[in-house]
Design the sequence.
């Protein structure tokens, strides 16, 4: 998945 | 952003600040594994390359920068400024035993075979095991100062709270990140034994945590 939500997490 | 995520981030930040201030104020890094701290700096560096590619929020950017700066500052204190107090004798965990398999796994299991995605996966896998040199050191010397155990408690609590965050996100947003969740579970399991000792010996006992 290229989910941008992943980059929201630290 | 939910309460578990926020509490997890705060817990992570508290852990890192506790460690930095402990070393700074006591002018000593006795009992601290420099190797674990180098691994954490490597974790943040490889994960936060997305600072260059995607903007999420001011909160996101600032927190990432704070984690990066504090992790490198901690490494600087251990290996440069207070290197006289660094216990290299007992910080003898072989990090290649972690780096080689973690690198291999990141190439095998990732969301896309691109440099950034492989580095992101590498950072997630490495974070799961980065504390092992520190836990190894405590096992070897048989004791840890209470402030070091508080650091470990908040560091362990952070990933446990992220697990709750992922359960929450799965139910509210349908968001599920397999790599992060599996690694997060593994990471939290590593702390379980420590959590038990922390509650039974540090909180109920006095000062130092000594192993039987």
Sequence:
């Amino acid at each position: 998945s290229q989910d941008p939500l992943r980059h929201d997490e630290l | 952003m939910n309460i578990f995520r926020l509490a997890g981030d705060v817990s992570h930040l508290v852990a890192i600040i506790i460690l930095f201030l402990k070393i700074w104020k006591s002018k000593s890094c006795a009992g601290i594994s420099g190797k674990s701290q180098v691994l954490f700096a490597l974790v943040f560096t490889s994960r936060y390359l997305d600072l260059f590619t995607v903007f999420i929020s001011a909160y996101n950017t600032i927190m990432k920068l704070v984690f990066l700066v504090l992790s490198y500052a901690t490494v600087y204190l251990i290996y440069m400024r207070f290197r006289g107090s660094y216990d290299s004798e007992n910080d003898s965990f072989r990090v290649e035993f972690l780096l080689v398999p973690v690198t291999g796994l990141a190439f095998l299991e990732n969301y896309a075979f691109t440099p950034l995605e492989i580095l992101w996966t590498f950072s997630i896998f490495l974070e799961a095991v980065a504390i092992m040199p520190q836990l190894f050191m405590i096992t070897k010397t048989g004791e840890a100062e209470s402030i070091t155990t508080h650091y470990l408690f908040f560091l362990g609590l952070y990933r446990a709270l992220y697990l709750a965050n992922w359960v929450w996100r799965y139910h509210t947003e349908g968001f599920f990140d397999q790599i992060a969740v599996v690694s997060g579970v593994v990471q939290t399991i590593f702390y379980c034994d420590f959590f038990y000792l922390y509650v039974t010996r540090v909180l109920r006992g006095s000062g130092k945590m000594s192993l039987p």
